[in-house]
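Attaching the record inline, Q. Sequence:
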Amino acid sequence: MSYPFFRVLGELNSLDARASSRAVIHTPGGDPRAVANGKAASANAPGTPAPISSLVSNAGREFASGAEAATPPPADGVTSAKLEVGIYRNHLKIGGIKLTGDGSPQGKTAYMSQPYTSPPPGQKADYRAYAVMNQQEVSDWVAFGYRNNIQIITHTNGDAALDQFLVAVQQARATYGAKDLRPVAIHAQLARHDQVDRIKALGIVPSFFTAHTFFWGDWHRQSFGEQRAAGISPTGYAYGKGVIFTNHNDAPVVPPDMLRLAQTAVVRTSRSGFVLGPAERVSPYVALKAMTDWAAYQYFEEKSKGTLEPGKLADLVILERDPLQVDPTTIRTIKVVETIKEGKPIFQLGVDKIDVAAAQAASRVAPNPELAEQRIHRH
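Structure, as predicted:
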């Protein structure tokens, strides 16, 4: 059985506590197993902890969930834990469960439905890479998320890996209903257009990675051929179909430079200067929405973040030039003049240390205790 990686906030006081701890381990496809000192016991045995509970914040609605915290049993014992999903604590939130479906296109480990045009050395001509989990395992995990009202975020680069995720979401919706859980297809780089249509129908949010068009665009042309490479991160088709999508850098794979990322979505130019998939370009406005407005939607935070509106958090940057008006090939050169977090300036270009009170007065951004209180309760 494969397990996704995600961190559980435990109640350990020391490493020594592991040896004598007891917990209930839940797996999506099986019954809870009580484990003590590395040995399985009856799930109904006296002293067995109850399943881990959580709260899930869903588009501003908070509700209880008897969530099963699925974790691999560590060799040195386990501990009881309390897992809160979708709730901010000291600016930290566990967003959901992360699954890994395949590898990377640049590493030629993205799981494909058709063979690579140029397979890795030593591989046969029919090489398509491979899945991390089989279909049943993916389906079990997605069903687990739907059963417990937890968002599932799945790494899917190749179209075959994305097919697995689409099948799993369709099955889960048939069993548990079309809940507003906004499952996320991370990367979805080689998504076919027919898959984008299914993504929309299933309520999935694809999070594309258009920085690849610059950093590895020329490599993808060799690996996948011109047609498939041109469709890397199909933002243009997705936007035309009315799909809400986001865009990311996946740092440290590439630098966390958001303005460069926006530029790659707009121009799609490779290192050699080749335009990779001109039909998949989007406007600067759409590129910015994919990193702000729609990003907040992906994380169920559209009521407090993503756009500049009364009642929302004052989280914003001030740029030296308007990315909607400049030459699109120069978007990445725009400098951030100031960064404001919840109404407080935290960065100013050329300033080593900010006098927050003076900066607030100068920028006329007043602190809003009521909004801060709303943030605490809302998230």
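Residues 97-298 form a domain with the TIM Barrel fold (CATH 3.20.20.140). The CA atoms of residues 88 and 379 lie 5 Å apart.

More tomorrow.
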